Protein: Multimeric flavodoxin WrbA
Amino acid sequence: MNTLRAVVLNCTLKPSPAPSSAELLGREVLAALADHDVDGEVIRVVDHDVRFGVSTDEGDGDGWPGIRERILAANLLIIATPIWMGQPSSVCKMVLERLDAELSETDDEGRLLTFGKVAAVAVVGNEDGAHHVTAEVLQALNDVGFTVAASASTYWVGEAMGGVDYRDAGPKPDTTGTATKTLAANAAHLAHLLADSPYPAG
Structure:
């Protein structure tokens, strides 16, 4: 079985080296994917000068083209985002807006360049909203050509009106941990299938 490649986009609002619960959960997803012949990397989006827009390159030193190149070279894309006010982070929404440009990018056979790539999402927060965020992000990724496996999400939310972050609460092997392992197994399985048998030309 060939080793596949995954990219985790950490959509925290905090630049490095600030601690990030989204980064922690994203790295846990990567660790779980490693058990299924997938390696990868985490990219903290705010560490790059990504511009607002809906094109593949907004010019003037835009940091998105470099990130996009790494996404297109990968088989899996995992969006790791915190919840803010019940919503995906503003960084996550900017990433989805930039991915909208992929609707105009096709290969020689008319397929979107994102066809054959598998998407998943990892969500952390201190309020209910993980299902809402997961629905928004996975729907957007599917709209721009990514394929979504069964149970393609993992999340952790703290107690309502609480103040504990995931990185402080520690892993939850029987809940978040189990969801992370299922995400990794299903997403990797689907990515291997698509790598061996791509979608037909349009």
